[in-house]
Amino acid sequence: LTMVASGPLIILNDLLAQSGESPYGLFNVTPVGLALLASGIVYFLVAGPRVLPKSVTDDVPGDPQREVARTWGLSGTLFCVEIADGSPLDGKTIDEAALWTNYNLHIVALKQRGEVRFVPWREIRIEAGQSLGLLGCKEAVTRFVADNRLTAHDADGTRLDELQQEISGTFAEIMVHPRSHFVGKTMREIQLRRNYGVEPVLLASGDEVVHHDFSDHPFRSGDTLVVYARRKQLRDLAAEDDFVLLTRIEDPPASRLTKLLAALCFVGAVSLAVVGFPLSISLLTGAVAMVLTRTITIDEAYAAVDWRTVFLLAGLIPLGIAMDKTGAAAVVADWLTGQLSSAPVLVTLLAVSLLASLFSLFMSNVAATVLLVPLVMMLGKSSGIDPRGLALLVAISVSNSFVLPTHQVNALLMGPGGYQNRDYLRAGGWMSLIFL
Questions:
Q1: What is the CA radius of gyration of the chain?
Q2: What is the arithmetic mean of pLDDT over 75-82?
Q3: Residue 150, φ and ψ in degrees, nearest 5
């Protein structure tokens, strides 16, 4: 809150200096900012479970793998089992084990002597001592382990974690192109696993959805396949003319060095703003540094822009300018200050704070400060209240923008958080009262 209020407070310093009053420095309002920050933290710690939305994650566009799995009712859980001596599977090929047919399980990894094969070919033989990475539901894995006298390693998690790090696969949807050479051919004929390194999980052909083995099902134009694959294989598949990739491919998690560079760029940008450089120049410097250090690319930066937020703010800016230029805001402020000339001090303070909070919903906090500070200073002189106190009250209250997502900070959080206007009204309404 102190950072958000810094712009209006700098403007306030300039206005007080121009009017001949001794300016208040930013450090004089640090206790106020800390009190507001503490009250906000305590409020959300205590009342957060009651005022924040209960199921935000259901509406948030997030991990594409999770979206595909939820859409088709798939289990994205990975299990690790080891082939023990004397197991009925010892010596059989993966195809002969019939995991897909009998258990609706998929072998997405086979580890032997430290080497991991992702989506192994179905003619590879299973041997004692191998570890298998299985994709499916826990009940099916439990039944499979019991039927074939295997050892499950999901209890200690060590081997499972190692296997997950080796695999790093994801769900994706691919569609058979209308002009694909594979129309009329089966998955067994084109050897999808061997040639493309993907594990088929589900087939949607017309109104039919096939979960079990469809290796001998002829592909038709427009058929949708859900596959489990690594990102590289999916990108290679997307480059083919026979399939169309329908799922957005997320980049792999950033390395520690990339995270460190991003943090340093951010800290550097904030530090420049703190020592006195303009905020826009400081943040632009941090953004340019991220591009120059290859923390992100220009394309990634553009893709990260939430255009709904851009257009929301673009619509609010002319509204605030119109309120200022046409004199509508000044008329409202003049009328209110006229009514308050003989009001008690606490009523005057509350009214000024409410007016500043209201203006901040459709005007920038700096514009609201520039408009209101001269008016409230004249009000202070006519009512016997220290004008500097009213000016400081305005500079703090224009940051009381919690009721609607019209402030740029709230707008930036709206998309990633999956919030709606009612969420801001419910949570921000009480926060605004605490602020006042």
A1: 31
A2: 81
A3: -110, 170
